[in-house]
UniProtKB/TrEMBL annotation:
This is Cytochrome C oxidase subunit II. The keyword Signal applies. It comes from the Bacteria. Keywords: Signal.
Length: 127
């Protein structure tokens, strides 16, 4: 009886540990990043209040960055950098390697209010 309990406990722990691994692996555990950049989306009563900070990001070609997108309040934003595969969401950080030199414009992907269309950000990748 003790043996059956022991085997059942071991099996239970094995199942539990395998579930934990798949849920807890995060991007920064898999990929080593050169830099972490947090972008915050701001909104407000006026159009001028709508912006991303920083408004410009400069990377070196080949640099791997972990991007985190946050909001200053409960208004949600997203960013799509045109000409790249980089799309940011507040749900999870995104790891991106800048392989192509150029200047890419990022636009807010979520209709966030009166100043939504003015929410732009520049991604510059230098040699
Ligand atoms: Cu928006």
């Amino acid at each position: 009886m003790k043996k059956l309990f022991f085997i059942t406990t071991i099996l239970f722990l094995l199942i539990l540990s395998s579930c934990g691994q798949s849920n807890t692996i995060t991007t920064d555990e898999i990929v080593e990043v050169d830099r972490e950049i947090t972008i915050t989306g701001y909104t407000g009563p006026d159009i001028e209040d709508f912006r991303f900070e920083p408004e410009e990001i400069v990377l070196k070609k080949g640099e791997t960055v972990k991007f985190t997108l946050k909001t200053d309040n409960n208004v949600s934003h997203g960013i799509q950098f045109h000409g790249t595969k980089l799309i940011l969401s507040e749900r999870a950080p995104e790891v991106y390697t800048a392989n192509e030199v150029g200047e890419y414009k990022g636009l807010c992907t979520k209709l966030c209010g009166i100043g939504h269309a003015t929410m732009t950000i520049s991604l510059i990748v230098e040699e």
